[in-house]
Structures
1.
Amino acid sequence: MEETPALEMRNVHKRFPGVYALDSARLKVRRGEVHALVGENGAGKSTLIKVLGGIYPSDGGEIYVYGERADIADVRDAQRLGISIIHQELLLVPQMSVADNIFLGSAPGRYGYVDRRDQVRRAQAVIDDLGLPINAAGLVCTLSVAQQQLVEIIKAISFNAKIIVMDEPTSSLSSNEAKILFGIIRRLKEQGVAIIYISHRMEELFAVTDRVTVMRDGKTIDTLVTSQTTADEAIRLMVGRELSDYYVRTDFPKGDVVLQVERLGKEGVFSDISFELRKGEILGFAGLVGAGRTELMTAIFGVEPYDSGVIRVNGREVRIHAPGDAMKAGIALVPESRKEQGLVLKNTVGFNMTLTVLKEFIAWLRVNRRRERLIMDEYRNRFSIRTPSYQQIISNLSGGNQQKVVVSKWLAAKPAVLILDEPTRGIDVGAKSEIYSIINDLTLGDMAIIMVSSEMQEVMAMSDRICVMGDGRIKTVLDKRDFSQEEILAHAIGGIAQ
Amino acid sequence: MTPKTLEATVRGETAFSVFMRNNLAIIAGLVVMCVLLSLSTDSFLTSSNIMSMLRQISTNAFLTLAMMLCIIIGGIDIGLGAYVALSGTVTAVMITNHGQSIPAAILFGLLSGALCGLANGLFIAYVHVPAFIATMAMMNVARGAAYLATNAEPIRVRDRDFAAIGIGRFHQVPLPIIYTIVGVIAMALFLNKTRLGRYIYSVGGNLTAARYSGVNIKAVQIVVHVVAGVLAAFAGIVLAARMYSGQPAVAQGYELDAVAASVLGGISLTGGAGSVVSAMIGVLIIGVLQNGLNLMNINSFWQIIAKGLVILIAVSADMLRNRDK
């Protein structure tokens, strides 16, 4: 007889007005198992997790925790049952210490008195136990995003959770930090904790999970044993069709040099950055989180200006102090965070698409609606952006479509150099493939592209050359024939003597 | 999945029907109030009452236009009432004490509001002082300056031409109502038809994204606060004309009526959204409420309580409606 599973969800239904978000969804997770939950955005993964965590009530179905029927009406019910969810967004209080955050909501002590020293001691014990270099008394706002992510995980563990859900836990971690996380996952597994792991990164799923449940259109499609399947099969089940060419990159001779960066520096952030970029070329930037890649790109784009060095576009020196200067020079940046830097979420698709090019159709009090429409239609058709109308509020679009709007908004400005910072973060495989194909088409049209990516396979498949950054410097520049994961990592970590 | 749900409702709808749907609650509230008042009083529906009510709300209408701009960029200006007093007194002092011509005096009045707004804008944009604090400080400065300029006494203006600005009529319609209509149309055009209008919504909607899109955030913040200061100053000059004098103690707390009207009109206090027309419906609700309670001879202290309750009810209704979505 099979051992009682840690968690079983049967025939879970959830309707939203007009949408069948969950249609008889099933999920069975064993004790001590790392169970991947995959599917495209909108497949129902997060809805299922929110039902489990008591954030949404379900419209039918049963949940069993360790064989017992569980009635989860709110978040506290879920916590009582030992279910802990680590959300993608950080939910820490930045001005409080690590220990305070860990025990938030479950502060120890009697009569409301919090023994802070004891709290710090206990938190530090958990942290040391995991071998993490984090000070429990330190303020959360002084930690890097990656470290904060780890604090979230510690918080979940300290609960003595029996079932932990991790939603894209590595989205802001470097590969090194991800390794620490995987170590933690293995230990939790040994302790018999059941882990539900949500990620769009296939490599990770194959590195850490035991089984994979694939969801599509609110239904559970299948549960596979990870070691007996392949990424291709999982992707095929997710999208319901064959993805012939996932990465799209044509090989062709490159044009003239468009962008020259010479000895660019910013005190304490990066220094001595020099590189060249040609028409039609994709220059990848790899490295660990904190290597200074994003900082370099925002400096080239003028958001946080550099303080030394020279930038030339088409041979002419340009001075960039603000994004407006960069735009004039023909440089565009699709920023790292779509929600924070890319879009005005509460406004419409049309508003966001044209924000960079209002000059082209608004002069004083005259709005040229035809011209506006033309610009919007061009990119909507070119990238097949799926939106019911331009008046749609953009937060209602899927992540992939939102990302296409961000790319459109920047292409509408007709740049010569397009910088893409993590262009496929948090979007599903189908949309990723579309974005790759868009990027490839752009280079065929002579655009020069810089692509910052923490996804090793992506950056290797798409780039013509890769700059590996570490500690704010370019450690090495690799040509396509020298690409290998080991090589890039070794340079990024800095283990190789020059 | 979510787009599918909205597709059914959004596609094919006219701008007007979307507007009606978003503003249904407050429009209904306004209509109900008007119907009740016309049934329960004889005087509400007379043209003289309507005219005088509209004239009275013109000050709040201008302050609400100013306030909504500040709120849309994610801030606030709580000094508006004080700029009303300052510009009124500056204008009166210029005419009565310094013998300036009326146009010159008005220019000085408007300038006083513009300077207050400019100072607000500079501190907010360059020093990153929170809008609430910067404008609270400016409220004190402006109010103090108004008392200083007048020795804390009303300054009478005997010039008939100046008074005409506030009490004159155009084909039976009091001039302040005309100013309001012009102001509302101009603001609607400004917000909807200009580049700056869109930049204003983008700054309030997501400051970082606006910056990454090449929007000059500082310029937007400064312009918005200067325009707000000038609008308040204009309201102050009209008010002074109506009272034949510049009075340093007027318009205490008017900024809160402007916040109330904006909130009633569904201007999101988190910024980035809101329309001129719905804000004006908010102004009308507050005006009709005040007028109606006056007509029914209700104690003015009860009126204050009623105003507070109406705001609470309207905003709660809006919250509950949005939660159901």
Note: Chain A touches chain B through 44 residues (CB under 8 Å).
2.
Amino acid sequence: MKIEKNKKYLLSKENISSLVQILQKQKFKTIAPVVKDETILYDEIQSIDELPIGMTDVHKAGSYSLKKRKDKALFGYNVGPQSCKKFLFPPKLTLLQTKKIDGKVTVIKSSDPVEKLALIGIKPCELSAILVQDKIFIEGDYVDSYYKQQRDNLFIVTTNCTETAYSCFCDSMKTGPEATKGFDLAVTELIDGKNHRFVIKTGSAAGVKVLSNIEGIALAPDDALALEEAKISSAKNKMGRSISTENLKELLLDNLNHPYWAEIQERCVSCGNCTMVCPTCFCSDILDETSLSGEDSKRTRLWDSCFSKDYSYIHGGVVRASIKSRYRQWLTHKFASWVDQFDTFGCVGCGRCIVWCPVGIDVTEEINAIEQDVEKMKPVEVEA
Amino acid sequence: MMLQSNNTAIKTELTNEPFVPVMYEIKRIQRETEDTFTIDLILPDKKKTNFRFKPGQFNSMFVHGCGEVPISISGNPIKNEKIVHTIRVVGTVTRAIRRLKVGEYIGIRGPFGSHWPVEKAVDKNVIIIAGGIGLAPIRPAVYHILEHREKYKDLSILYGARTPDDIIFKKELESIRGRFDIDLHVTVDRADNKWMGNVGVVPTLAKRITSDPSNSIAFVCGPEIMMRYSAVALQQYGMSLQDIYISLERNMKCGIGLCGHCQYTGKFICKDGPVYSYETVKDLLKTREI
């Protein structure tokens, strides 16, 4: 049958397997979550057998572990410590090299090669994070050429969430549990007793082309669509965390001097883990390296964190010397100033910063605490 | 809160290759003070540069094997044959720049950032207040006004340095003092026995201004504390905060709003600043560690 854009089709597990093969035939390196180092990480896969079949990850504030599922779900995981950020915005990227001979310097532009990458089984929050970073790296005044080239060579198969973890709050950030844009294909895995099916939605011309290569597929029947809707809506109702985003920007920017920041400082160790696991954090630093002769020099871009003191260093001192000011910078950036900068929140509700915080600081609890405290301090109108 | 910006991004080849510097050759190095020098750059092989900038903008200067540092452009925006920076030695890269010799190369990315609103200042009295090295980013605005002197009304320059030895652009200041169309006042925090001029911090000079405050615009550049007290003095003199412009400084690494370091709540100082109207940043200036 003729595959069309924005239509939903029914696939079997074998069809998903063929999908991976088709992408490989089209010269895509197929990247998907795999079980590795007692976590679920992204790595290259050859077949769907390498997916974390029958495994899931259990989250708590400051805790992450793997657990066997009762079923053989292919996409039954949440989010691991790594995000897709590393594919488009690598932790380490050579920007350029220079050569100095007799005081004269020549620039050798770096051209780290990009690859055709197919990201398979990424969650809607992950996909949303890519869309957030698009705004920074390719939709502004200046374009990050590496990001742009890699982005143009990306194929995205997202998987809608039918379950949630303790740390999930995508519903609050309007980034899930169902992907609404930015994907080539979006899969919802449906397990109903022994009936293991997948509803797949086409989201782009490239997605239509790939799906057209799978033989014998049909439009998803009503019962599958009904089950899909029920499962996604059940996930939506089971968010582990939640915050109110209404007037959140104003709440935070109007309370930059709130005493609660000092309270968080008592717990935060300023390690920067939250920024390293965050799928949208985009700060970077430059490392200059020189050969012993001094002739060759290399500039490398590295991920940086607003939790380091050096981050805000200017001659004469550090602007954000206290931990509370650094935590405030991070949180107000994600949930307030990001809106001024890029017209979107900098948080997609993936919950990684909660899970990977060594002391279990929960950003949703901190926001709710500030909100409640501000609410409590509001003058009450008393009837005369 | 949204900060107003008067940034007009100049599209250059940097738009697509924002991390790649253009190499320039050092033509001249001139000592200003003990720790400050002015450096002129030209394109190698006598090629003509098409470098254009607006007063108050800055460049990222790159030294091979050492790193990059943001430095405001201190030259004349109308004369384009060379790029001029005035640099105070405060860190690794500025120290490395001072060690370079005429003929050696420096990489330039830029110009970046917003500029002093010289267009908005037309038909107004212009008051320039600078402290220390803060005169360097404001000098292009003085050049601009002097090149189009008939378009502006009174021009007052108030400049303060720590000691007489810390005064930069001495010869130029002396020649300006001889002009009848510029009102120049210089002060030092600490005098030596040869100093015959004013003593005291630069905001105290504000009372010398005689122009009509309701038709004035002020460009203020120096340490943050000096800019705050200058704004207070200008307010007392009768100006409104939206006519006072200041140039802020944060850790500007990439110059293009991608590395994150210079964030000032919703704004990137490197891209939306460094020049802001005082009105738009007055609340933030009162908040510590922003």
Note: The longest helix of chain B spans residues 224-237.
